Amino acid sequence: MARKPARAHEMAPTRSDPSRKARAEMEFDEATILGALFGQFDANLVLIENRLGVFISARGNRVQIEGAEDGVARARDVLKAMHQRLIQGHELDPGAVESIIVMSAEPTLEGIVSGDEGTPPIMIRTRKKTIVPRSATQIEYMKALASRDVIFALGPAGTGKTYVAVAQAVSQLITGSVQRLILSRPAVEAGERLGFLPGDMKEKVDPYLRPLYDALYDCMPPEQVERRIASGEIEIAPIAFMRGRTLADAFVILDEAQNTTREQMKMFLTRFGMNSRMVICGDPKQVDIPGGPAMSGLNDAVARLEGVEGIAITRFSVADVVRHPIVGRIVEAYEGEGA
Fold it and tell me: Which of 227, 228, 300, 226 is nearest to 266 (CA)?
């Protein structure tokens, strides 16, 4: 039996005057998901109240929202988006709620969550989870990942640059669109000294590559990750290991690309082979190589390649940080002092 959509009974005009008081009522037909929608002890409703400055009361399957007109309209959109996310089978953790609240400032929130009219939702499916965009820029990024050959993702930590790229790569590997997944990083020390560590080459460089392993394990069962690494379907290696190769039928991701030299970046980009896709992720403001941003291969490549056919450049900002809200405030504070 098809599920009925949530019904929102508005008792105020559409948003126009942010200071005018308004009230709206919503009624949800799926009683089985109300617990997940409202959160334990109504935690999700409290989060919306605190972030949007409204008052929300819930009785049974009916929700009443009161406050400034703009806040009420945004709260209504947020609840509709949360409800839609649940009936599509997605998780609704506090991070997801926070992201939907942030996106509610966008005029196309409903399109962000469900896709444009007549098109499927924007999402990436992997074996363990389904990833949906958590910011407006992530929508642009996901579309580029699905359509362009080379994608540069620029911006601060916590915006999902690498995580979303790994999810898309895993999805394409599972469906057979590519035969290999290659993840790489420059092994650059950022204030640490790891060279003294014992072990073979793999054991020495693994600490630099750990974030890539973490993203993989979040998208695939651990036993599948290990099996595919053993078979060569998934390769995780420093950028130096890419020299002299042609990477065909592969999804290739370069993380922390701001710490490549110009020569390394040119070498990496020219490894591109047939039926492949490359994603280059980095934060141009966090360069750890000698010479700073002026010597970064990422900055040089973006300056040279912007506007070239087949290449997309997605720029994230502090507003796109999808970790705990305090991470965004920390990044903003550091960027404010010119770090």
Answer: 300
Alpha-carbon distances, residue 36 vs 74, 293, 323 (angstroms): 20, 45, 20
The rounded distance, in Å, linking the Cα atoms of 298 and 154 is: 9
d(CA 53, CA 230) in angstroms, rounded, equals 52
- C-alpha to C-alpha distance for 205 and 241, rounded to whole angstroms: 11
For residue 62, give both structure tokens.
Answer: 């009916």
Q: What is the pLDDT of residues 72-125, one digit of tens each?
A: 888 888 888 888 878 877 778 887 787 778 766 654 444 444 444 444 456 776
How far apart CA 306 and CA 302 sit, in angstroms, is 6
The runs of H, that is alpha helices, within the chain are 34-38, 43-52, 69-87, 94-103, 109-114, 136-147, 161-175, 201-219, 222-231, 262-269, 297-305, 325-336
DSSP 272: B
